[in-house]
Predict the 3D structure of the following.
Amino acid sequence: MIYDLIIIGGGPAGITAGIYAGRQKMKTLLLAKEFGGQMAKKATEVCNYPGFPRISGMELIEKFVEHVKTQETVEIQMIEAEKIEKDGDIFTVTTTENEKFQAKSVIVATGADPRPLEAIGEKEFIGRGGRILCYLRWSDV
């Protein structure tokens, strides 16, 4: 089978792409090692998402997953993508289990793991939202 779209990544961006693709009735495959991304791992509490004055990162991801599962044309497989190749107009995505899937389009929404600043006070504020308050001494530069 050739999908219209393969989405690689189970964080907010990948899930949202799946929801929008499903709404357009695109035959879509969402491949994810796990759901959540940084929101589930680092955001203990989300206070700036419309409609939810306060919600944990995990609860919000659970709502995202529940939503994407309502899309009839979106298939979800909990497996990690390893390689993408293009031959003509078709992409082939190979997984770590050596499964191969083909699609007309691919979205890579694997997120990022930002490098820490290693600034004074940074670790205490990770996952707490808001700005990181820290300072550098001239001797640190």
Notes: Residues 130-141 have pLDDT under 50 and may be disordered. The first strand starts at residue 2 and ends at 8. Strands lie at 2-8, 28-31, 74-77, 81-87, 90-95, 100-108. The two ends are 56 Å apart (CA to CA).
